[in-house]
Amino acid sequence: MPTTRDLRRRAGEDPITMLTAYDAPTAAVIDEVGIDVILVGDSMGNAVLGYDSTLPVTMEDVASRTGAVVRATEDVLVVADLPFLSFGVEQAESVHNAGRLLKEEGADAVKIESGPHTVALTEALSDVGIPVMAHLGLTPQHVNELGGYPRQGTDRAAAEETIELAEAHEDAGAFAVVIEHVPSNLAAAITDRLEIPTIGIGAGPHCDGQVLVSTDVLGMADWSPPFSKRFGDVRGEMRRAVESYQEAVKSGDFPGPEHSHVEEDIEDLE
Ligand code: KIV
User: Which residues of the chain have pLDDT under 50?
Assistant: First the structure.
């Protein structure tokens, strides 16, 4: 099983692959294929829980889905996301919440939407043995402050601030940094400066790895961000299966004799 140390060593080597997963069957496929990292992302709010942002996602949501992913997988590194307000208020509570995902659910590491306020927390978690993946650039938990999900780091001051934050999180002990929705030349500059791997989403080709939301990749979402890509049509396949089932029940083709059984002893009931 790869460790966060193995991942650290992959910076600049062969590209790191990461996908989100929120349930056992999806996680099992991702693990079988040999993807390096599963992120049990708070994107579950939009992707599978029916919310229009990640803000309502709770520790219980992330914990139960992290447990499902861990139970279904053998080789992949599992990173659990800390949801909105589960960190950043009280340090002790943040450490307790992060620790719970490792101790009770078996995650290997946590991801934190990062900013100046998470440097000390990253150090505190790393010190007690909770590996931290930082997340910079677009941080969707700030949707109300940002007024949506705009590109980040687009002017020099913002780009320099993002580089400084990435370095501060590396110094604080983060083992990797997700960089979301920033210009690819900013992502390249961060990748160049850091020794730990950068994992991009909407950040161009120069990161050490890439992450996407699995429901986007599988073609299950009715909307995906412009930087994402569908690699399948699972929604279409699900629809075809559901329609075939409906037709088979209505026409009487299902259940057939191979899906039913007759008990000789109760023949006379008829
Ligand atoms: O929650 C999530 O899935 C994420 C990724 C998009 C990086 O934060």
Answer: none
